[in-house]
Amino acid sequence: MKALVFPGQGSQFVGMGKELYDSRKDIKDLMESANEILGFDILSIMFNGADEDLKKTEVTQPSIFIHSVAALKAVNGLGAEMVAGHSLGEFSALVANGVLSFDDGLKLVSERAKAMQDACNANPSSMAAILGLEDARVEEICAQINGIVVPANYNCPGQLVISGETAAVEEACAKLKEAGAKRALLLPVNGAFHSPLMQPAQERLAAAIEKTKFRKATIPVYQNITTTAVTNPEEIKQNLIAQLTGPVKWTQSVQNMIKDGATNFIEVGPGKTLQGLIKKIDNSVDVASAI
Fold this sequence. Notes:
- The structure is a single chain.
- By secondary structure, the protein is of the alpha/beta class.
- The protein folds into two domains: 2-121 and 196-289, Malonyl-Coenzyme A Acyl Carrier Protein, domain 2 (3-Layer(aba) Sandwich), CATH 3.40.366; 125-186, Malonyl-CoA ACP transacylase, ACP-binding (Alpha-Beta Plaits, 2-Layer Sandwich).
- The chain is built from 13 helices and ten strands.
- The protein has helices at 18-23, 25-38, 42-48, 51-54, 57-75, 89-96, 102-122, 135-144, 166-178, 199-210, 233-243, 250-259, 273-281, and strands at residues 2-6, 82-85, 125-131, 149-156, 159-165, 183-186, 221-222, 229-230, 264-267, 286-289.
- A four-stranded parallel β-sheet has the order 2-1-9-10, with helices on both faces. Strands 4-5-3-6 form a four-stranded antiparallel β-sheet. It has a two-stranded antiparallel ribbon with strand order 7-8.
- Helix 2 (25-38) runs antiparallel to helix 5 and helix 8 (135-144) packs across helix 9.
- The radius of gyration is 18 Å and the shape is globular.
- The mean pLDDT is 96.
- This is Malonyl CoA-acyl carrier protein transacylase.
- Its EC number is 2.3.1.39.
């Protein structure tokens, strides 16, 4: 069975989407409509902007979504039987399975990005990648720290990102190194994504989601928060909202997709990050880029 997977924040690069834009008129029209929806020229930042501008959350997230949906259009869905997205990528996955339109998806992604950025500005916080330690040990140590620090991204076995208040994250990193982690690296982000500190952003996203039309899925989406196949639009809504303060269970999602028959994973969007993670989760499956 074929599964489409969609990347999240961090996969952006200057020049992203230009080849897609130049390849076909229908893709060009789709991408140009993003400028109108967002009210600024995001394509010029994607194609020719400064790296620092592209890294701003309110630009990064819509850019990756636009690129991913354009790539999906270029390959016409590839006849997939299931979809999943890593964090932000879940919105692209919901366009792929018919739950969201491009326009509605982009509006939600833009609101999500702005809300997350505002939450970051209001409460200085950070994230760190923990390498070479079992998930259960990371969870145990985070639970012992005073202050907010939680597992945020279960990326693959031996790679878990933690998120929370800066002092708590730093203390956790020190204790995790003592416990045998090969590395504990503070990430170049200015906020604690997928932690309780995103609560204000979650409330804003929930309000936007409730005003948006969600259709029944044509194929299942394996959502970050539940890790299992979902098609019901009301369930999908609630899981999207919960995702902002809950962990991205990518390892568990991929394992469940394989258990349910996925043998071929195709990454749709910028970069190859997810292909690398999937091979570390189970190297028996095939991985490839859509374009």
